[in-house]
Amino acid sequence: MVAALAEQPSSRLLKHIIRCYLRLSDNPRACDALRSCLPDMLRDATFSSCLREDPTTRRWLQQLLHNVAGNRLPGLQAGGGFDHMLVN
């Protein structure tokens, strides 16, 4: 699905996909699995143009990547925290 999204971008679908992965990363076992199977396109800048105008989805993606990297940061789902790390 993510590979198809790279060929035919949809900001709305990307938002839902990132949110699903983020929710999965809340579960420790699922998070461990995501370390090996999270699509590389979500780790690199493939979707940066889609995310440029959507700070919420950018924040979700940043949190997802931190969760998968092993840096669990509870409480950031409810609000801020990553705005200073986002590149415009």
From TrEMBL:
User: What is the name of the protein in this document?
Assistant: CCR4-NOT transcription complex subunit 9
InterPro entries assigned: ARM-like, CNOT9
Q: Which Pfam families match?
A: Rcd1
Any one GO BP annotation for this protein: mRNA catabolic process
Q: Which Gene3D superfamilies match?
A: Leucine-rich Repeat Variant
Signal sequence coordinates: none
Q: Which organism is it from?
A: Salix udensis
Q: Which PANTHER family match?
A: CCR4-NOT TRANSCRIPTION COMPLEX SUBUNIT 9
Q: Which domain of life is it from?
A: Eukaryota
Q: What is the lineage of its organism?
A: Eukaryota, Viridiplantae, Streptophyta, Embryophyta, Tracheophyta
Can you supply one Gene Ontology CC term for this chain's record? CCR4-NOT complex
